[in-house]
Design a protein that fits this description.
Elements (H helix, E strand, L loop, with lengths): L1 H22 L9 E7 L4 H14 L3 E7 L1 H4 L2 H11 L1 E8 L7 E8 L2 E14 L16 E5 L2 H4 L1 H14 L14 E8 L2 E12 L7 E6 L3 E10 L3 H7 L14 E3 L5 E3 L25 H18 L1
Parallel strand pairs: 1-2, 1-3, 6-7
Antiparallel strand pairs: 3-4, 4-5, 5-10, 7-8, 8-9, 8-10, 11-12
């Protein structure tokens, strides 16, 4: 009995050690998980929108049914929820008279809020409203951002970074062509953000490269930008800091152009061309003995005749 009890305790300890190793800091981070939470007061639009975004984010997401609005934004509860699910992203949905159909996208750093942006839903079509075949669960999407605001305005730059972190999925070394089937398109136009979800179809084109068509699969949102809570420059710098082991080492005499082509410069010593090995031919061989003397005599006779 003592041996069985000792084995049971040892197995739990190993399992706990594996769990802690998985949560420990790594050079290459795990896939960012997201907490998707429904507030105390919500509408049917917000509830269905949270379910659809959860379907896009699965399996790297956790869906909570109901959390009171004023409780989640308490610091110790944020730390509790994020540590429990190992999540660094969150989406909070709420609804009230002042801010109807409200979604808050946010990021966490060191288990505390780094930044968050509030978006209001003006128009929404769910996954079930658009009748078409959907992409498989866990498909890595291609993200497209259109609009000058994503490049020039500070709030839209932060929103672009936040949405990229939220939807980009796992980092993979390579992708097959047939796996590029899900497209998320974000457009910033006239103070609104339009989100559309498409499935790419590979059609026959008569040549080796297929013809690509886009089919809308949902969900689709028309957002309006509301309140923002952005981190300070120092906090952003700390959050984006990379360990020294991940920083690429500088290599001398190697450069890259705008297309990623690698160029190298080699420094060689001065060569002695007299010792350079060339191709050997019979006509270039040196003749020896009487045959060589006869050839030399013939050449001198030819020169004398030419002079005369």
């Amino acid at each position: 009995t003592k041996q069985k009890l000792h084995f049971h305790i040892q197995s739990i300890t190993k399992r706990a050690k594996r769990f802690l190793d998985n949560r420990a800091p790594k050079l290459t981070e795990n896939v960012k998980n997201a907490m998707i939470m429904k507030g105390g007061n919500t509408s049917m639009t917000v509830t269905q929108a949270l379910k659809d975004i959860y379907a896009l984010k699965k399996p790297s997401a956790v869906l909570y049914k109901k959390i009171p609005n004023h409780l989640y934004f308490v610091s110790y509860l944020q730390e509790f929820f994020s540590k429990k699910t190992d999540s660094s992203l969150f989406l909070f949905g709420s609804h009230n008279k002042k801010r109807p159909n409200n979604l808050i996208f946010g990021r966490l750093f060191d288990f505390h809020v780094l930044d968050m942006i509030e978006l209001g839903i003006e128009k929404y079509n769910s996954l079930s409203d658009i009748k078409s075949s959907k992409c498989p669960e866990g498909t890595k999407p291609m993200l497209v951002f259109a609009g000058d605001a994503f490049d020039h305005e500070n709030e839209h730059k932060c929103l672009k970074s936040l949405l990229t972190d939220f939807f980009r999925g796992p980092v993979v070394p390579s992708v097959r062509l047939a796996g590029l089937e899900h497209v998320l398109h974000f457009t910033a136009l006239e103070g609104k953000i339009y989100m559309r979800s498409y499935r790419s179809l590979l059609k026959k084109s008569g040549c080796r490269t297929p013809r690509i068509e886009l089919e809308e699969i949902g969900p689709s949102f028309d957002f309006i930008l509301r309140r923002t809570h952005l981190a300070s420059d120092d906090l952003y710098k700390t959050a984006h800091k990379q360990p020294k082991a991940l920083k690429p080492k500088k290599k001398k005499n190697i450069s890259h152009d705008t297309f990623g082509t690698k160029f190298g410069r080699l420094h060689m010593q001065k060569q002695d061309l007299a010792k350079l090995q060339t191709r050997k031919m019979k006509g270039l061989r040196k003749r020896r003995g009487p045959a060589a003397a006869a050839v030399v005599a013939g050449e001198t006779s030819l020169k004398t005749t030419e002079v005369e």
